[in-house]
Design brief:
Blueprint lengths: L2 E7 L6 H15 L3 E7 L6 H11 L3 E6 L5 H11 L4 E4 L11 H9 L5 E5 L7 H18 L12 E4 H5 L11 H7 L5 E5 L14 H21 L4 H31 L11 H28 L9 E4 L1
Parallel strand pairs: 1-2, 1-4, 2-3, 5-7
Antiparallel strand pairs: 3-8, 4-6, 5-6
Helix pairs in contact: 5-8, 9-10
């Protein structure tokens, strides 16, 4: 199979028939063999009934229905598991991503040899509450990830070599950082393509700008830490803990040596326990011990991590 199109959605009943018809037209024109996987993320409207109707009209349609709303990352994770195409395309269900971009995305993966191609919505039709946080977030993501050629990490329209989606784990809200996940998994050939961004036709956006801004930074810090120390947390916590303990221990020795010097030379002195520096040194030693133990416990957890992606699926076809 040439292409799998994975579409996570939440309350998008109005746009689904038009979106599938558009995808179908593009695929048939280019003679692609394909499947379209709709992942219904706990929608409260009639989205699933629409997907079932599309399925009755075409065997190209596949569907996954979550029992409740989990989020975009879990939806992509389950869609990636089900995908069978050589190239996997992801797009949003709100008609803001154009299926007309699919042939060129497919070509860049199959002919140019890229592992991942991310869309870049150079001209956007989003409100300022969404675009300004997005620009700040993307600038930070470029600096932290080292992927300098991407302007829009969170663009829903992306193309992947099949091996990429089968070797990355998208959980929590890590869909924003799939290029970073791919790079860390050993897929460094990442490109960008300017894509057409359309104004939303039905309903309103499901994502708030400020909320996405703050959550995005928290996720970026988490991913950076995991990529650096996720397998060996002792390298971070053990180092920091040992450093703090040693500094505290040396400080206690200096305080004690100062008192012994004062005693031996008949100089005035104060009790060690009356010195504020003693308590600062003691605090450093205690914190250092705790950090060291945190690193040790982290090592144990890393070796015995339970499954993260366990989502309740109500229906699937």
């Amino acid at each position: 199979m040439d292409i799998s199109v994975v579409i996570p959605l939440y309350n998008e009943e109005e746009s689904l028939p038009e979106l599938f018809a558009w995808i179908q037209r593009v695929m048939d024109t280019n003679r692609f063999s394909y499947e379209v996987i709709f992942v219904n993320d706990g929608s409260t409207d009639h989205s699933w009934q629409v997907i079932e109707k599309l399925r009755s009209e075409s065997d190209k349609v596949k569907g996954i229905k979550f029992r409740r709303n989990y989020g975009k990352s879990p939806a992509l994770y389950c869609g990636f598991e089900k995908a069978q195409g050589d190239v996997v395309i992801t797009m949003d269900a709100d008609l803001q991503d154009s299926p007309d971009e699919i042939p060129e995305l497919y070509r860049m993966i199959t002919e140019d040899g890229y592992d991942l191609v991310s869309g870049y919505k150079q001209k956007r039709y989003d409100p300022l509450s969404k675009t300004i946080p997005t620009k700040l977030f993307n600038a930070t993501a470029r600096a932290v990830s080292g992927i300098k050629n991407l302007h829009d990490f969170n663009c829903g329209l992306k193309a992947y070599r099949r091996d990429v989606v089968k070797n990355i784990e998208v959980y929590g809200e890590m869909h924003r950082y799939i290029p970073y996940l791919a790079k860390n998994a050993g897929f460094p050939k990442i490109a960008e393509k300017v894509v057409h961004h359309q104004a939303r036709k039905f309903g309103k956006t499901k994502f708030g700008g400020l909320n996405r801004f703050f959550n995005g930074y928290l996720d970026l810090i988490t991913l950076w830490f995991l990529s650096k120390f996720g397998i060996k947390p002792m390298h971070f916590f053990g180092f920091m803990g040992s450093l703090m303990f040693i500094l505290g221990f040396i400080s206690v020795i200096i305080i004690g040596a100062n008192k012994l010097y004062a005693l031996s030379h008949g100089l005035p002195y104060i009790l060690i326990t009356d010195s504020p520096y003693f308590y600062l040194a003691l605090t450093l030693m205690i914190l250092g011990t705790q950090l060291f133990l945190a690193g040790f416990i982290g090592e144990l957890i890393a070796r015995n991590a339970p499954e993260r992606n366990n989502y309740k699926i109500e229906k699937e076809f």
